[in-house]
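Predict the 3D structure for this chain.
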Amino acid sequence: MIDIVEIDQGVSMMLEMPEVAAGAVKITLENRGLTIRGKVEPMRPENLEFAYAGRAEGDFERDFTLSEDFDPDRIKAEMRGGVLTLTLPRAPEAQPKRIAVKGA
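Done. Predicted structure below.
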């Protein structure tokens, strides 16, 4: 599951990744393509055979195409409580400009 929200500085992406360690996630940015790769390790209790396994395991990959508005040097990633949060700040020149209104 992924949530993408607008924040003052740009965009925040939150991806649920239960059972994925921060060290098992690889994030790359090439041109405007943001790729998130990782691996979910199997959680199998010893000496038990599953009749049904509802949890996915193995490699995964998610791809996103970013607009040119984002500053690639300021992208941050943090894993906490099974949620990967990426902060994608907009470049200063892409930030909205405020125009003051003067009274007569």
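The beta strands are 2-6, 10-16, 25-30, 33-40, 58-65, 76-80, 83-89.
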